[in-house]
Specification:
Distance between the termini: 37 Å
Number of helices: 0
Radius of gyration: 13 Å
Order of helices and strands: EEEEEEEEEEE
Structural class: mainly beta
Number of strands: 11
Helix content: under 10%
């Protein structure tokens, strides 16, 4: 069971970036998936979650209207399209598997598989 993120980079404020997460070793289409980020010296912040079928999505207030989560179950890929990036979006971004549990998406103990993270830096 593995999640591998990619796509992190240095980008200027106002720019865009698309993160990808490649899943392997499990039935990807059966699980909700999420993006979580952690800025230097800060705690984890839940960013977004998508249900297994891809039809329902949720976003944290800080990214709502700027970020879009999506998935391709045939390719076992999770994506995060980030537009209008701000310096405060600078963080390591992780994808994580949600096997069920509560609807408190920021309950990080309820995610059972995590990737290694990809760094996003927003700076001029």
């Amino acid at each position: 069971v593995q999640l591998v993120e990619s796509g992190g980079d240095l980008v200027q404020p106002g720019g865009s970036l698309r993160l990808s997460c490649t899943a392997s070793g499990f039935k990807f289409s059966a699980f909700a998936m999420a993006w979580v980020r952690q800025a230097p010296g800060k705690g984890r912040e839940w960013v977004s979650l998508i249900y297994s079928g891809g039809d329902t999505t949720f976003y944290g207030d800080s990214v709502k209207g700027r970020f879009t989560i999506s998935r391709d179950n045939d390719k076992t890929m999770l994506y995060l399209q980030m537009n209008g990036l701000k310096p405060e979006d600078t963080a390591t971004y992780y994808c994580a598997r949600r096997p069920g549990g509560s609807s408190n998406w920021a309950s990080f103990g309820e995610y059972d598989v995590w990737g290694q993270g990809t760094q996003v830096t927003v700076s001029s």
